[in-house]
Amino acid sequence: MKNLFHKDRQNLAEQGRMVQKQASLDFLDPAHEWRRIFAETWGTFLLVLVAAGGGVVAVKSGGAVTLGMMVTAPGLMVMAIIYFMGTVSGAHLNPAVTLAFALRRNFPWRRVPAYVLAQLFGGVAAAEFLHAMFGTVGALGATVPGSGIGSVTALAIEVVLTAGLVNTILGTASGARNIGTNGAIAVGGYIALAGFWAAPISGASMNPVRSFAPDLVRGDLGATWIYIVGTVLGALIGVAFEWILKGKPTVAGALAAQGTLDNDDSEKPEV
């Protein structure tokens, strides 16, 4: 019985290696690269549109959009994006997440620049759209330290929040992050939860593009460094904690980070 169990484990491990190898080959196949780049651009556009747009519409509507609504909307948007395109690109939507997946060895470094550029383009396009529609109302939804909050405090909060976000994403990538309900709910729920208590302190950005895009379009980069330094440091800490908690990277983590576009049998027509 013991030998049979050991043999089963070996077979499962071999199957896992075969799946990872095939997924890596599929991911490196340039045939679908444009889909992945489009997915990251469109997904980040939607995320920044909702995250920054909440602040804009709150001011424009005279307070009809409350703080609770503003911090819940990005979480729900991320949840929806994971569902509808997670299998295409991995639904990173955030340079800090792409960096974390690469450091975790779930994502190839040579793909990082294209993903980050796509995220930057999508985020800036969303900020430009809001500016075209509403001008600079509500500072275009920029994330800035709250009243009476110093830069160091806001920086520390962003580091901690981003570390928690990265842990949530990497942790749920071990199984059903892209297509299962638990992964999408966990990531979206964390974003909303972080915003509930930390938005009045730092804006609860956790995403350098979400902060950079409105700042660039409105022409005020004075506080942007907080949200770049804070999210990068948070991503590094989150990856280190994931190594402590889970050890080596997994096949499932690589599939979650890279997407399963070429391995998703449900997308193939019946023959």
Could you provide a short overview of the structure?
The protein has 271 residues and is mostly helical. The chain has ten helices and no strands. It has one domain (26-261): Glycerol uptake facilitator protein, CATH 1.20.1080.10.
Measured between the Cα atoms of the first and last residue, the distance is: 41 Å
Number of helices: 10
Based on secondary structure, the structural category is mainly alpha
CATH topology assignment: Glycerol uptake facilitator protein
Instruction: Return the CATH class.
Output: Mainly Alpha
Task: Count the beta strands.
Answer: 0
Number of domains: 1
On the 0 to 100 scale, the average pLDDT is 86
Specify the CATH homologous superfamily. Glycerol uptake facilitator protein
Radius of gyration: 19 Å
Shape: globular
Low-confidence stretches: 176-180, 265-271
What proportion strand? under 5%
Q: Give the fraction of residues assigned to helices.
A: over 70%
Can you tell me the CATH architecture? Up-down Bundle
The quaternary organization reads as single chain
Order of helices and strands: HHHHHHHHHH
Model description:
The relative contact order is 0.18. The protein has one domain (26-261): Up-down Bundle (Glycerol uptake facilitator protein), CATH 1.20.1080.10. It is built from 10 helices and no strands. The protein is an all-alpha fold.
